[in-house]
Amino acid sequence: MKTSAEKTGRHHRRMSCRRVRAALVDYLEGQLSADEQDQVSAHLQSCKRCAAERMALKKTLQVLSCRELPEPDERFWMDMKQRVREGLKEEQMTRRQPSPVPARTWIPAAAVAAAVVFLFLWWTRLPVPPAPVSGQMLSRLEQEGRQSLMTLGQDLDITESLPMPGSPGDSLISLLAAASRPSETLEQAIIGNRMKQQPDLWGAVIEEEISSRQPVDMLLKQLSEAQLRTLSARLSRLAG
Amino acid sequence: MDATQEQELIRKFLEGEQWAFDRLMNQHQKKVYRIALGMLGDHDEAADVVQEVFIRAFRSLKDFKFQSRFGTWLHRIAVNYSISRIRRRKARTHLSLSEVSHRLTSSLGRPGKELSLKDLGAEIEEAVASLPPKQRAIFVMHYQEELPHKEIARIMGRSEGAIKSSYCQAVKKLRKRLILYENLS
């Protein structure tokens, strides 16, 4: 029987084994174009090693088809709807409770948050050697930072992006603490908020969160005395 | 259901129509569950993911801009959520050396012990669980859920070529783990 390429009179450039092997999964799934499918078929007829590779891959896919995943019954899906309804109700109830941060503090707090982002960006790009830290200053900074982050988190509605216990502010702190690039996570959050592009925001934040490295508290502890003083002054000015 | 019908359904949900909630759940919950189950390999965890995904999706629905289909958006949330769980689970689980050695031995097959279909089920689970989270997501969505590479690319925010390549790598990795079982199926 003639292949489609033969029928159309086209001549194939012979495919290399490397190209054939790279295309084998698509070939087995019938995802290649008719022309490519023919080229691979022609190669497989003349190359025993690639033909063996094809057979092995086919067997693997057959083996994988033995994977059994349970199918829950209808009762499960009914219960699931109820769980989701209750979850939504609980959230609504939580949202009706008064915010621990008065609404009028939003603007200065957002400005503080922006400063924090700025500083994150600044210090994550500079190799800062560990330095002695004033405990009092650090605790003041953490308190102020926590407060502004909490406001930011509530405003952005990302505080409950992850099922973490504790207050919204704590969740955001934990989320940022787990982020590999907290500065960028916050930056994304701020940009997302400004542009009102909320839907996928928390997906992006989770993306950041999932590869955890340097906690925020550790970052704070890495600041030199002078950096802490600068940050503290800046925060006080903005918050004041 | 086409995009217009879907938008209408979402609008009805936002107006508080209960039937719209039911229809949106009916339409998507099974797929979300299967993606989560395929990635996590655990029914209870998959059920938690379904619950969280829908709560978060419904909560944010008022801000949904219809730049993608609702299903694509849900699947993205489900994948991100499952990946997040896998990573957190990984951080919690520190295998002892003896456990690692035991797993290695079992994955290579013990001499004198016949391979059975029962072993195969467990081995497939371990093999899938050994894939890096994003690769696992791609494998599950394409092999198990038969989503086209193009749709997976939209869900994962990557190019179609990258998805294809990652899928091929996943299959090759699985092949190495399952090579002993090839004559069993």
Tag the structure with descriptive keywords.
heterodimer; A: 240 residues; mainly alpha; 2 domains; 70% helix; 0% strand; flat; disordered C terminus; B: 185 residues; Rna Polymerase Sigma Factor, Chain: A; Arc Repressor Mutant, subunit A
Structure, explained:
The complex is a heterodimer of chains A (240) and B (185). With 240 residues, chain A is an all-alpha fold. Chain A folds into two domains: 4-64, no CATH class; 100-239, no CATH class. Chain A is built from twelve helices and no strands. Chain A has helices at residues 4-8, 17-29, 34-46, 48-64, 74-96, 106-125, 135-156, 168-178, 182-194, 201-209, 216-222, 225-239. The longest helix of chain A has 23 residues, at 74-96. Chain A is flat, with a radius of gyration of 28 Å. In chain A, 28% of the residues are buried. By secondary structure, chain B is an all-alpha fold. Chain B folds into two domains: 1-93, RNA polymerase sigma factor, region 2, helix turn helix motif (Rna Polymerase Sigma Factor, Chain: A, Orthogonal Bundle); 114-179, Arc Repressor Mutant, subunit A (Orthogonal Bundle), CATH 1.10.10.10. Chain B is built from nine helices and no strands. The radius of gyration of chain B is 19 Å and the shape is elongated. Residues 94-113 of chain B have low confidence and may be disordered. Classes of the chains: A mainly alpha (240), B mainly alpha (185). Chains A and B meet through helix 2, helix 4, helix 5 and helix 10 of A and helix 2, helix 3, helix 4, helix 6 and helix 7 of B.
